[in-house]
Amino acid sequence: MVSYKELGLVNTKKMFAKAVKGGYAIPAFNFNTMEQMQAIVQAAVETKSPVIMQVSKGARKYANPTILRYMAQGAVEYAKELGCKKPQIVLHLDHGDSYETCKSCIDSGFSSVMIDGSHLDFKENIKLTKKVVAYAHKHDVTVEAELGVLAGVEDEVSAAESHYTKPEEVIEFATKTGCDSFAISIGTSHGAYKFTPEQCTKDKNGKLVPPPLAFDILKAIEKKLPGFPIVLHGSSSVPQDEVDTINKFGGKLPDAVGIPESQLRKAAKSAVCKINIDSDSRLAMTAAIRKHFAENPGHFDPRQYLTPARENMKKMYIHKIMKVLGSNDKL
Ligand code: G3H
Ligand code: 13P
Ligand code: ZN
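Above: inputs. Below: predicted complex with zinc ion.
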């Protein structure tokens, strides 16, 4: 058993309370590689932002759980080396699928876990979440749950609406599970294709404009649970300049579209205190690497193409922190 406290990490409790009060959101950046981790830490330190570094079950398998634990500890030490006296870094399990996965993460140094019971019926979701909360809280680890199902690109907007979080369920869910936060469904979705072209309108340049998020549902949830920390998944904006770069240099991402940053800015000012971003990091990395290879066909040293990739991700993380989430200067 390794406690996250030994690694210098923190849980989300105080961080979320401050963010809800302050009208900003904590960035939750997914990572799989050392370069992503370095870019996240550099961005957080330079902007004086708390940060959640999160890993999916797949990322944990990819990186190896033992390496991950030391990477998280390394992240804290690296932040200090960069001049941050008291780094506020959370290591979070994204989309935990079972009690066993959550327990294994808690036992190996995670300071926060998500148990995603959103595919279960309401009662089963409560039962599973409650079981994870009981174990996590014994170790001072915070728990994120999920209520409602995120839309998939295959859904019609109207069909997707039926999976939106039901405000009438949130009090019972929060009270019975004891979770520290939960993710809601108000129209965001995972990946780089969040809406089909049919679900969008077009602006004067012919670019796809996605439908707005369901802020009425968010408002109703806030009214039921004032001050309770809410999480938004699937919040990448899929920057069109990165998509264009990828497509220009041999990629093929037709009609990739994300959540407009103006919508996320509005959400960050509400009870939404954690915003998940993964796809934008993947796009930033891929765009830089494709460009580098196209312009430098003779290069084959990974440091040659991973350096601009890391720089591009760092630029994106800093932009999110300062211009979208507002978590800068909070340490
Ligand atoms: O919500 C999912 C995250 O973007 C992680 O994706 O399972 O491919 O690592 P992944
Ligand atoms: P994106 O695919 O929009 O980056 O969402 C990531 C996410 O929600 C991870 O849990
Ligand atoms: Zn997610």
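The chain has 13 helices and ten strands.
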